[in-house]
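Exercise (ungraded).
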Amino acid sequence: MSDLEVQAELAAHSSQSRQAGPARRLGVAEGAAGVFALFLLVAAVAPTLLAPGDPLHIDPLSAFQSPNFAHGFGTDESGRDIYTRVVHGTQYSLVIGATATVIGLGLGIVLGTLAGMLGRVVDFTVNRFLEVLFAFPGLLLALLFIVIFGPGVATATIAVGLSTAPGYARIIRAQLRTVRSAAFVEAATVLGRTRWQVLLRHILPNTLAPLFVLATLGIGQAIVWAATLSYLGLGAEPPTAEWGAMLSAGRTYITSAWWMSFFPGLFIVLTAVTATVLGRSIDRRMRHA
Amino acid sequence: MSEVALTVRNLRVVFGAAEPVVHGVSFDIAPGECLAIVGESGSGKSVTARSLLGLAGANAHVTADRLELGGRSVLGLTDRAWRARRGKDVGLVLQDALVSLDPLRPIGREIADSLRLHTTLGAAARVRRVLELIEAVGLPDPELQVRKLSGQLSGGERQRALIAAAIAVEAPLLIADEPTTALDVTVQAQILGLLEQIALAGTAILLISHDLAVVSRIAHRVAVMHDGRLVETGGTAQVLGSPRQEQTRRMVAAIPTDKPRGTRLSLTARPADAPGTTCALSTPFPRESTVVLEAIGLSKSFRRPDGSRQLAVDDVSFALHRGSTLGIVGESGSGKTTTARLLLALLAPEHGEVQVRGQPWSAAGEKTRRGLRASVGAIYQDALGSFDPRWNVAEILTDALGLRHERRAPQTTARLTTLLDEVGLAASALPRRPLELSGGQRQRVGIARALAARPEILICDEPVSSLDVSVQAQVLDLLDDVQREHALSLVFISHDLGVVAHVSDQIAVMRAGRIVESGPARRVFAAPQHPYTAQLLAAVPRLPA
Amino acid sequence: MAEPVGPRGATLRVVLRVLGRLAARLGGAVFVLWAVASVTFFAVRLIPGDPAQAVLGGPGSQASPEALAAVSSEYGFDQPVIVQYLTQLGRLSTGDLGRSYALNMDVGPLVLSQLGSTVLLAVLALTLAWLLALALATWSTRGGTIAFRVGSSLEIVAAALPHFWLATSLIVVFSIWLGVLPPISTSGVAGLVLPVLTLAVPLAGFLGQIMRESLQVALESPFVLSARARGESERGVRWVHALRHASLPAISLSGWAFGSLISGAVVVETIFARPGLGRTLLNAVTLRDVPVVIGVVMIVAVTYILMTLLTDAASRLVDPRLRLL
Amino acid sequence: MPLRHPARTRRLLATTAGIVALGLFVAGCTATGSDKPVGEPISGGTLTYASGDAEPSCLDPHVGGNFPQALISAQYLESLVSRDTDGQIIPWLAESWTASEDGLTWDFTLRDDVTFTDGTVFDAAAVQANVAHVQDPTTLSSTGYLALGKVTGTEAVSPTVVRFTLSAPDSALLESLSQPWLAIESPTALERSQDENCAAPVGTGPFIVESWVKQNAITLVRNDDYVSPPADAGHSGPAYLDKVIWRFIPDSASRYAAVQSGEVDVIDNAQPDTIVQAKQSDSLEHLDSPRPGASNRIELNSGRAPFNDVRVREAFMRSANVDDAVSSLFLGTATRSYSALSSVEATAVSNAALFDYDPAAAAKLLDAAGWSETDADGYRVKDGVRLTVEFPVSTNQSIPAEQSVFEQIQATAKETGFDVKLRPLDLSSWYAALAANDYDAVSAPYTKVGPDVLRILYHSASIVPAPSGYFANLAQVNDPAIDELLTTAARATDPAARASLYSDAQNRILEGFYILPLYDQQNHYLLRSDVVGLRTLPTVAVPTLYDAWLNR
């Protein structure tokens, strides 16, 4: 199992659960998650709309200010406005998260499709390979990659992508196999559809559609992991306004300036929660639409 | 001990603020008597049964003028008081014991639970009693059985174990909620026999079922339930023999067993049928002697988990004549579905071959076969699973018509509407997804899809087994209609001999992969040659003559 | 050989089957280890630069050419890759994990000495996570809709909490503001509380969700209705039937959970200054101390495999159906 | 000989402390304070020390030789000489010493009452064995080895007199010998394998290494037979503490929380904000002890463009607002330095006028140097090349506040048109960048007792890289006049003449705008108020727990 598989499984569980309460259960949460996701999107695309300032602008004389009217989230050790940095940091975090997800998903699709579509030998080989990768718990695989290629944002992004790939691969493989043996695929054969038609019209769409859910869930996970690497000093470096790096820098001053690490951390948590809630919501909609 | 085991007066059950699910139901059961409540799904029969145990549900509001178990009122009991009486004064047997027995506990433990909760017996005494019970419900070798998990038992054995658990403390009343629904006919007969025995021993039995024929076998009295009300109550023979209410009549009519081929089962299936017409005999249709589909010595085996091979289909041969229906009947595991898949060339036979209109079918490559595919359609038991979940009805049917649904022309929509009309669905179904349709509607869409390509042959694999009796009747009638209209040849596969006998011209009886008997439906039904066929036939639930 | 018959024959068959399964398991484990060793060996070849220089502490080490040559021949860097690979496998098979560049000691003993601390942390966290999840699941399925919503929201948020943020917040609250728990985890029980909490809370979020779902499914299943119809009490229903079912998916998740705990240990051990594999690994990564990294990865792979075996055994214990296969 | 901070020291070098603070907290000062009135010292108890530095891989400071080793080894090893707070060399294991006229022969008279904690007698042969150990290439000594660079031989004149023979006069010899990296260990113990000796070195100090659980703690116990405190110690006889637990807590917030909650008694590498908090707290005391040797400074690579032009170097310094950065980030715990040397060095020369923040002057200088155009991003351009300053930062060697200083310099220099590219690198990559001459500015802290550090850092000979590619003269100062001054100073036997030579050299370095001094190498300790008598050795500013006792 990988983190992703667990996430996916939980999403599947929660959307299959009874309709009575649960159907409306996440109503408020979904709304809130949607609003926050919109905020993140705006922050990523046009950060200056939400925070017109320069995230790197220093003002030594107003360093270490606790949250106040002028600086909603307070200022950091060089007097930079934390709100501005958090908003501008969205771009880094989302880009890192999205890139890592694309890498992981891409690799996962290749591996999963190989295993799911080709013969038993390929399936067996790919499966053993994945099993081996699972013996490295997530972060370990990323750390191994970093030790080889050295720390940095690019390495961290690729590392996170790589370490999520096995999870994607297994989900895709399982999904492919389920779809391939589904009754509607047989029904299409009975209707006289060719293998290609079946593949293009039934197997692929039904395999790939859930990937959207996976990607949503995965992006939250990837952001947290990338932030973890930055926090450990192996990813983005200060003064980059990346959330993990901000948190890492802020932790030094945790006893005197809690706001420096609180707000970036809050955004990481909220982003992860939002990804979970939205992922599940999409999943439910896709299943019950 | 009271003379009445159960008294129910004006029982009402309401969930939340909605309409009552049960409206003022009243009945009594005497010790040793078996009362059957019969109704379609959603009629409120299960809720009625559960409210007699105080288990109608957390948000259920149960009221009654009188509700007495063994003469003592159970109205307004606290949960604790209910617990003291459940299992002791009233036992419950549910359908499908695979999920009604805890799969993680040996059945001995499950049976002993009631004893643990309601008696002061010591551990050793409990074990002795459990062994007695297992023996009493007719399971062989009790010492071996107690340690088994429900997953290790066959369906019938499980149901017996469940009954043993329910009667462990000799509760004066036993409620059996669809106790035989998932079982093969022969096993069903045995379980009904067991219940009958229990009633004979003096236990009152409340039998809940959707199938009149099943209950008629052992019930002394029948109560027909519809929309939360008992519409008709009386002696079994009287209610079934001369039903007074329309609902009852409809249910009686829907039973296919012993109804000749072509007899309409549903009373309101098609608008064309005049209301009130019962058992309208349809016109006989022409049958030709041309063989359109032939199976020649088919064999197919599968690998078991332990590596050995099991023959699922063993040297099966038959021929399907144009315009006729070949019924294949057999119990679970007899190889019916494998045969269907072989006929559809979804599996390749190990030996033998299938020919369509005399041309190689299973022996041909898929490429060659594809040209013939349009003439062989299929209808599946799980209609929902046979539709791509992303598609709505319009897309499913457009695809089946061989058109591309990206640019749907107005004339396509017209064709879709005609197609739907043919299976008795309105055009309003087009934009809906199968998930939003009822079981009967889904099967109609399935039939429409099969008809879209104008096939000559339809392979129907258990097309009605997951449907209510009345819906089943409608679908069977529909199949009958389309067969006549399109001169279709049908292979109709089912575990239900009654259904098969009703729809088929020819019957093949399968057992363990082999055809043990085949021949014209009437002949096989009237004078079975093979003892197995006779056994099957004897077990078929039928209304008292 | 004649097919064994009778009860003795049956026992023999069972024993043979169990042995066969064990052999298959061991074979699988050895395969995974071999593959892990190979993957790491060839991955490390990708590191740019002279491995001998890395052994001597990188370009800043002022290593003389003689020292480089000596290290090259000692570590066999001058040999063909295939020879190095086979040598490495040979060394690994005897349990020799090589020598740390940075810590001046053999990796095997180093890693083993750190293992206990991490395993203790992981086991405690897993146990606590289980208890928390169980408590939350039972509470939220017993109460009404509000309890259900609160329970599921708590779980989703808990599952989303990054370890580093949670650890920091716990230190701020319990060590700095309240001053009741030590911010470092060196010795003693008190020092374990915060690290264990940090690891357990997110995990409990995951386990809780899965447990609540399966508990709900179990509680609504017909066999529970049957049990209730027999007069079983609510507690009996939960303890005799439902919880056992609810724990099954959570048990099968425990292999994954262990992996996520190891990942978490990297962060937690660093923040709480606790000795252990995670901190060793992170130090080794920052110093690019390759033998230690490989050593830790290998030992984690071994423990992971053991953990999956253990998880399997636990599943069999709880689910007798698996014993039938 | 100088001390470079070798690999694997994380946040090894804190930046230098202020001159005002110096008056109060100069190396060697004693921190006291507790709820209980301080009476007579109480013997007994266990003190827990938490270090923010990396855990050493070897407890024998002869091997390698870095600051973490110095910190711990000062508790169980002793040197031949020490230095007092005035910078005077004072006796320790050596009672007295004499140098020959030509400065090539030194005789040290040793104490005759000292034994190592393994029972071996401390004598001239022991000193010889130590010198041989440090100079043995298989020991892999770097710091100690460099410090003994001019020592060609030793001779036991008598059991209590040892003679050092030098290849050239070395005015820094005593300062070198006072460093913990040349502490004296038991010759019997040195004969063990290196692994054994690394795990538990044997010395003459007030404590004995009892056990070392890697990645967890080192336990030291009191040496009850201790007789040899240095001349400036607070008492004589054995130490007060029964036991010392030495831990490693790399995370600064955890470290502070630990001392705040009383989980540990002393921490090092205290961060500015926690120092400020501690000063407001009754339960914590602050001990500031800047390290000797060089100040913390940014070196500008004069060996390549753009900093091969003195005008550009000056422009960079004028454009960097260091004062505001230091005051905002160090919150008064560090004072701006204008010197090449640490403020604890008596020979330090300071020239504030050279480093005024003056963007207008900087702009003029750049115009004059030909960097007169400005591109779209606001950076200066010359011949189509942007005015870029590659600035690799070693994350292992710079504390967070210092990295923030660099960020602020980056921000203020940008206003004048410098594109400062901060590149945070792990130690090994950082060394690689330096070796490849791929830098324009760099901050490389250097600890060494005495002004001889200047020769290491600014003599042109130090531009020539060692085989590994490393070199110490990162500013690539190549000035014959400076070379001459430094070489002469290293051989000068007269203290006054030596001081004057170093003063001249420093002025030339400062006026050449090779370095931008920031502050002293910071070395802050926080201790519980009930820890009394803790002081740092004035040599390399490491704490000694010999005089410390617990007032509880």
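Further reading is listed at the end of the chapter. For now, observe: Residues 18 and 183 of chain D are 29 Å apart (CA to CA). DSSP finds 17 helices and 25 strands in chain D.
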